[in-house]
Amino acid sequence: MTVGCDFTYESAVETPAIFQVQPAASDDFFRTSEAWSSNPQMTLRSYTDLYGNPCIRVVLPAGRSTFTYRSELQVLDATEDVNLAAVEIAPDKLPDETLIYTLPSRYCLPDVLGNEAWSRFGATAPGYSRVAAICDHVNSHLTFQYGSSTAWSTAADVNSTRFGVCRDFTHLAISFCRALNIPARYVFGYLPDMDVPFDPAPMDFAAWMEVWLEDRWWTFDPRNNRPRKGRAVIGRGRDASDVAMATTFGGPWLETMTVLAEEVSE
Questions:
Q1: d(CA 170, CA 176)
Q2: pLDDT digits 0-9 by tens, 100-115
Q3: Which site in 25, 154, 192, 237 is 20 to 30 Å from 31, CA atoms measured?
Q4: Would you state the CATH architecture of domain 91-236?
């Protein structure tokens, strides 16, 4: 499949920026090609953040500039794993590195939503089925609508308004999981429409979550609420603030942004 994106900015002054648009190395795909380009030409510097996500640093020049990324991936012809028998782990038995994903973060608020989480899901059988029940609820409770939330909207906000985009669905489901002491982390990546019915709001950049059950992370997608093919993870973190597609140290105007995530016919 082909993934990538194009950003066009208008800047009054030179503006440092960070882009997180490159799929992280994974056993789920093989990268056959990759290309970065910019106009005018910019110096690209790569680094890995504290979560292990690949990032690119640039300085946007004054005036109009474009930044482009493309990659060809061979992905597995299979959806993510499902295991209805996967069990929850008691907090004192959780691996140390998972504990950060049980705590509140900027957009995920298990402390605020804790009473609702326990009243709705406390009696549900622990394990994979309880996380699935959380996803079922979030999927039916929220309506997907572009522009219905802002960069400041938290899980509590969208739980109240009942409208959001994929990141909001994910923040809410993560909040409920964390309130129940289930580690849950935010995942950002490309998600093409492969072997699924027509979607009037097709995926490109997308957000989903990974939840720690038994002895590993499991993929759950409260927005689509079904196993999917072709997920290409860009980054993982506590919430969307850790894996922003673009971070600018200034106020350039984003003139256009296009995202590509599509299956390639052979």
A1: 10
A2: 999 999 999 999 999 9
A3: 237
A4: Roll (3.10)
Question: How many whole angstroms separate alpha carbon 102 and alpha carbon 120?
Answer: 18
Where in the sequence of the chain do the CATH 2.60.40.2250 domains occur?
2-77+244-262
Cα separation of 254 and 11, whole Å? 9
- pLDDT per residue as tens digits for the range 164-218: 999 999 999 999 999 999 999 999 999 988 887 776 666 568 999 999 999 999 9
CATH of 2-77+244-262, one of 3.40.50.720, 3.50.50.60, 3.30.420.10, 2.60.40.2250: 2.60.40.2250
Angle subtended at Cα 144 by Cα 139 and Cα 150, rounded to the nearest 5 degrees: 115
